[in-house]
Amino acid sequence: MLGALSRNRPLLALLRGGNGGDKAASAALWAASKRFMSSDNTITVREALNSAIDEEMSADNKVFVMGEEVGEYQGAYKVTKGLLQKFGPDRVLDTPITEAGFTGLGVGAAMYGLKPIVEFMTFNFAMQAIDHLINSAAKTNYMSGGTINVPIVFRGPNGAAAGVAAQHSQCFAAWYGQVPGLKVLVPYDAEDARGLMKAAIRDPDPVVFLENELLYGESFPVSQEVLDPSFTLPIGKAKIMREGDDLTIVTFSKMVGYALKAADELAKEGISVEVVNLRSIRPLDRETINASVRKTSRLLTLEEGWPQHGVGAEICASVVEESFYYLDAPVERICGADVPMPYAANLERLAVPQIDDVIRAARRACFRKEEKKQATA
Amino acid sequence: MAALSSLRVVVPQVDITRGASGAQGAHSAGAVGDKAFFGLRSGQRLGAEVGRVTLRGCGVAVPAGNVRATAAASKVVKEKAKSEKAQLLVTKEEGLELYEDMVLGRSFEDMCAQMYYRGKMFGFVHLYNGQEAVSTGFIKLLRKEDYVTSTYRDHVHALSKGVPARQVMAELFGKTTGCCRGQGGSMHMFSAEHGLLGGFAFIGEGIPVAVGAAFSSKYKREVLKDDKADTVSIAFFGDGTANNGQFFECLNMAQLWKLPVIFVVENNLWAIGMSHYRSTSDVEIWKKGPAFGMASAHVDGMDVLKVREVAKEAVARARRGDGPTLIECETYRFRGHSLADPDELRSPGKIGQSTTQCLKEFD
Question: Dehydrogenase E1 component domain spans which residues (chain B) (predicted)?
Answer without folding.
Answer: 101-351
